[in-house]
Amino acid sequence: MIETCEFGSIVIDGKKHTSDLIIYPDRHTEDGWRRKSGHRLSGDDIGDLIKSEPEVIIAGTGVNGRMKPDRELRKLLAQKGITLIAEPNQNAMKSYNKLISAKRVGACFHLTC
C-alpha cells in the first residue's frame, strides 16, 4: 500500500523512499531507478518489471506529469497484454492502491517533476 506520495518522496508500507523506484508485483521495490532518457519512459527502462509479468503497470509520471511513456513502450505492453496506466503521482498512487487487491500490479514512480 502506498501511504503518501509527495515531491521527492513516497511512503510504501511504512518505509519512506526518496529516489525514483520500481515496485514489482511481489511488492519488493528497487530504489535508485533511472531512465536512459530523463523524462521519457521506454521498455528498456522497465525491462525487469515487464519480465515479472504484471497484468497492469502503473507509471507515476511525476508530481506534474512530465515523464512520458514512449510509443514503442505502449506497443510492447499491448502486445504482451499488459495494461499501462500513466498519470501524475497522486493519481497513480490512488490507482495502484485500488488495483493491488484485484490484479497483479507493478509500478514505477518518478518522484520529482
TrEMBL record:
One Pfam family, short name: DUF498
GO cellular component terms, A-Z: cytoplasm
Descriptive protein name: DUF498
InterPro entries: MTH938-like_sf, NDUFAF3/AAMDC
Domain of life: Bacteria
SUPFAM superfamilies the record matches: MTH938-like
